[in-house]
Amino acid sequence: MTSADLVLPPTDTHTPTAALLHAPDTQPLDAALADMQVLVEQNGYVIALYPASIPAAHERRLHTVRSVLESDRIALLKLDLPPLGVSVLVRQLRQLSVCDFSAGVVASAARLLSHYIHAGALLNSVAKLDRVPVSLKSHAKSWVPGSQFGVVANPGPQLVRIGHGELTGPEFATRLLVARGQLQSEWVNATLAPAWQVQGIQETALPADSPRWWGTPRMIEFAAFLPDISVIYQLVSSVRREVCTWCGIELIGDRCGFCSAPLPPAENRTHPTRVLGEGTPMHHGS
Question: What is the pTM of this model?
Answer without folding.
Answer: 0.90
